[in-house]
Amino acid sequence: SKQLGEALAPMDIVQPDLAAQALAFVEQAENVGLLQSLSTLPKAKDFSDLLGKPGRLRWQFNAWNNKPVENAGKKSLNARSAFYASIEADKPPLDALVRLGKILAAADNGSSLEPTGAPGPQWLHYLLNDAWFSSFNEKMSTAEASKKRPAWGIDLVAKILLHEELDPMLALQIIFERKELDSYYHDHLGSFVLMPAVADFMRAHPEAVAKLPAQLSASGRVLLAERLGRDKALLNDFPALLVALAADGSKTVRAESAPHLEGIAQERRLPLLAELLRSGDSTQRAQAADLLARYPAENTRQVLSDALEAETSKPVQQALRTALSRL
User: Fold this and answer.
1) Which is nearest to 196 in space by CA: 171, 233, 162?
2) pLDDT value at residue 138
3) Cα 238 to Cα 125: distance, rounded to the nearest angstrom
4) Residue 103 has pLDDT above 80, yes or no
């Protein structure tokens, strides 16, 4: 396509005819050896700036006092942005997207990549960082994202993973995980987390969602709790998940999750906390005791007393006694 040709054109500054070879690889799977040879070229370190630092998630692009290189990088970013915007959700060119990710990864060679900490191959993170942030050169609102990246939601991530014979449920971790990105920049991908398609995907795959807290870091679980808390309908489709997050071992996860418990009707909330008090791990049981102590005594005293009678863990017994003394 014209857009891809323009996106790869600056590669000719490193070596003539390289852009045409890269385009043939992306569009027709020709010149497969190019992926190995790019990093060995004499001026290979220039690729990162010439392609506008495609792995970024934090800063706007700047080539620091090299205007010709900066202009080339910006042209490449603009062309890629137009290409990503043109993709139709119902027929994405999966082969070309995978190969574009591989070209970006091979050319940049880790130089600009700012990983989130989610699993998946490096080229996929290049492709997503580029589509979600780098090529747009700043964070997008959810309205902008749905207009300028209509195809680029969790479903496309799952399709790319499946196309490459990887587990499509990794898409959930890719959407939520942030353990390697400073919290100040988490909102740079916030619009993709908030897309309605994420809620639909979660509802369609409840078993994968149930496994998610164990797969995510604390920063990922904070984001998951935030997503549930901002969507009352979704929260009430996954109330046990939020209750478990409110009794999490991480203080930051609990701090984000606990206020959202109010979004679950009390007649569902208290039985879920009582169930966690019976069957959760020792951390969850101690935290469930603390949460139950925040509700009226007539609803919780018996549950806490019964739990204390049956409890064998000394720290949990202490948490239960403290909870009962607060009623």
Assistant:
1) 233
2) 77
3) 28
4) yes
The DSSP element (H or E) to which 197 belongs, if any, is helix 196-204
Q: Which residue has the tokens 């902008």?
A: 144
Q: Tell me the torsion sign for CA atoms 87, 93, 97, 103.
A: negative
CA distance 244 to 257: 9
Q: How confident is the model at residue 274, as a pLDDT? A: 97
165 and 121 Cβ atoms separated by less than 8 Å? no
- pLDDT, mean of residues 60-65: 89
Pick from 110, 84, 92, 215: nearest CA to 155 = 92
Q: Can you give the pTM of this predicted structure?
A: 0.95
The helix/strand/coil state of 239 is helix
Cβ-in-10-Å burial (0-12, 13-18, 19+) of 218 comes to middle
Question: Degrees (nearest 5) of the Cα angle 206, 215, 171?
Answer: 60
Q: What letter represents residue 137's amino acid? A: N
Mean pLDDT, the chain, integer: 96
* Cα gap 235→6, rounded to integer Å: 44
Of 266, 267, 260, 265, give the one whose Cα is nearest residue 244.
Answer: 260
| Angstrom distance (rounded) from CA 137 to CA 54 | 10
Report pLDDT digits (tens) over 126-163.
999 999 999 987 788 888 888 999 999 999 999 999 99
Tell me the two tokens of residue 190.
């916030």
Encoded tokens for 300: 């919780």
Between residues 16 and 137, the one the model is more confident about: 16
pLDDT in tens, 199-222: 999 999 999 999 999 999 999 999
Percentage of the chain exceeding pLDDT 90: 93
Give dist(CA 180, CA 151) in Å, integer: 26
pLDDT tops 90 at residue 187:
no
Determine whether 206 is exposed, middle or buried from the number of CB atoms within 10 Å of its CB (0-12, 13-18, 19+): exposed
Apex 121 CA angle, 119 and 122, nearest 5? 105
**Contact call for residues 101 and 134 (beta carbons, < 8 A):** no
State in Å, rounded, how far the first CA of the chain is from the last one: 68
